[in-house]
Amino acid sequence: MYQRILVPVENSEYDATILEHITxxxxxxxxxxxxxxxxxxxxxxxxxxxxxxxxxxxxxxxAYIERLATSxxxxxxxxEAVLASGxxxxxxxxxxxxxxxDLIAMTTHGHKxxxxxxxxxxxxxxxxxxxxxxxxxxxxxRGASAAQ
Length: 148
Hints:
The protein has 148 residues and is an alpha/beta fold. It is built from 6 helices and 5 strands.
């Protein structure tokens, strides 16, 4: 069904939700997984234009996604890590094409309309710009219940 799944992560407690879901899906479908994090700090957004070096934050982000990929590999899932930079919505959609993924699976925070307007919504941007299916799973911070 799905051969290659792109999984955007943000280095937060919400990542556990999508990784748990995707681990089961990848095993069921025999899929490989591409873990992506889009660094969007000042250095990350300007690294190409200004020929900057990776920031410490970017190095930490890469180490984080490499640990996630290694964990999936230890569970028998082919996985790799990709660190991108720039606008998260645009980069995730572009990475799905570039990495030849046939599914994007990501968490949402479950913001209401006003919060999405104020904060923006990466999930919304991805679902509007992606040419592949997008699976959205509502993330739950640790200790939160589904009724909240």
